[in-house]
Write a structure and sequence with these properties.
This protein has one domain: SspB-like (SH3 type barrels). The protein contains two helices and eight strands; from the N terminus they run H-E-E-E-E-E-E-H-E-E. A three-stranded antiparallel sheet has the order 2-1-6, covered by helices on one side. A hairpin with a 3-residue loop joins strand 3 and strand 4. The longest helix is centred in the N-terminal third of the chain and has 11 residues. It is globular and about 70 Å long.
């Protein structure tokens, strides 16, 4: 899977909107005619847009979707090679300096140029830690006393959600 593909999935599944920055002159880019002259071209993706995207599809070559341009839907096709940056709502995201068109390379802060996808470590490329466990608050009162070193008392909750006090025991089974 292309690194930009992985990054877009990661950013979109975070629930934020993502501004995809691209060079529309790259072969394979299909956008409305007047967008080919916009450099850089920014496309907003996300699940919480004013005009929803009904058909966003990502594959090994890039992504396709129907996006709204001046409130008119247009089917677009964007190859990964045309994308040089992605920015979330917090103005954070990866930038691929080697893919920035020379005409606009000076428009990006120098410190952002080092913000490539290595700084956005991919969870798939990280060695998984041992499983971690959390405590879910079940809404009941705790049977443990912080001043007492004894083990907490276990309670059986029946299928209908009732606390069955007759089964509470301090004795191991």
């Amino acid at each position: 899977m292309h690194r930009k593909h992985k990054m877009l999935i990661r950013m979109l599944t975070s629930g934020q909107k993502v501004l995809v920055l691209l060079d529309p002159r790259i072969d394979g880019v299909e956008v409305p005619e007047d967008c080919y002259h916009t450099l850089p071209l920014g496309l907003m993706l996300g699940s919480d847009l004013a005009i929803p995207i009904p058909d966003l599809s990502l594959n090994s070559d890039g992504f396709t979707a129907t996006l709204s341009f001046n409130r008119v839907g247009h089917k677009i096709s964007i190859p990964w090679k045309s994308i040089f940056g992605m920015v979330n709502e917090d103005n954070e995201g990866p930038l691929w300096p080697e893919d920035i068109p020379p005409e606009v390379s000076g428009n990006f802060p120098l410190d952002m140029e080092s913000n490539d996808d290595e700084d956005w470590e991919d969870e798939d490329d990280v060695e998984p830690d041992k499983p971690s466990f959390g405590i879910l608050d079940g809404g009941g009162e705790s049977q443990s006393d912080p001043d007492n070193d004894q083990r907490p008392v276990l309670r059986l909750i029946t299928a209908n959600g009732e606390d069955d006090d007759d089964t509470t025991s301090d004795e191991p089974t």
